[in-house]
From TrEMBL:
InterPro entries per the UniProt record, alphabetical: TPR-like_helical_dom_sf, TPR_rpt
Annotated TPR repeat ranges: 62-95
Keyword terms, alphabetized: TPR repeat
Protein name: Tetratricopeptide repeat protein
Organism: Ramlibacter montanisoli
Comp. bias (Low complexity): 153-165
């Protein structure tokens, strides 16, 4: 399954996951991997549904919340991303990836708030350096911002071992 995913063979990986789940529909590890495959295949709405259902059935697992947050952030739904990450951290306070992603979401929310403040008061000299600092944090190669004010940050998807039950 992981080899298929790494090779970009999303359709085959999804078929394999579906075949496995036909016999063991409650397996959280395979359901998680299926959500990852859907994400990698560029099917975010289906991946969101898969991870949401996984969080309903196994609310104690932090990884589905984290991956759900990554998908929400990718759709600029930062409040939903924040809530999902807070749930991931509640279930596992030492989940470093979720903490990092929460920081990214807060930074993006701050960027949006600072941008709005500048729209309302372009002469506010206190806001400009704050906004510049956040943009620098997310700057990509060549010093150009990796994300704009209208795009999501690039939180890290959970690559930890899939949950086991």
């Amino acid at each position: 399954m992981n080899q298929l995913l790494r090779a970009g063979q999303h359709a085959e990986a999804l078929n394999k996951a579906d075949r496995y789940l036909a016999g063991k529909p409650k397996d959280p590890q395979m359901r998680f991997l299926r959500g990852v495959v859907l994400t990698e295949a560029g099917r975010p709405d289906e991946a969101i549904a898969a991870f949401q259902k996984l969080t309903e059935d196994y609310p104690e697992l932090p990884e589905p919340y984290n991956n759900l947050a990554v998908l929400y952030a990718g759709q600029a739904q930062f409040d939903k991303a924040r809530a999902a990450l807070e749930m991931a951290i509640r279930t596992n306070p030492s989940y470093a990836t979720a903490h990092e992603n929460l920081g990214d979401v807060y930074a993006k929310l701050a960027s949006q708030a600072y941008s709005r403040a500048l729209q309302l008061d372009a002469g506010n000299t206190a806001v400009q350096p704050k906004l510049a600092l956040i943009r620098e944090i997310f700057a990509g190669p060549g010093g150009r911002p990796a994300v704009s004010d209208r795009e999501a940050p690039a939180p890290t998807a959970g690559r930890a071992a899939a949950p086991r039950r």
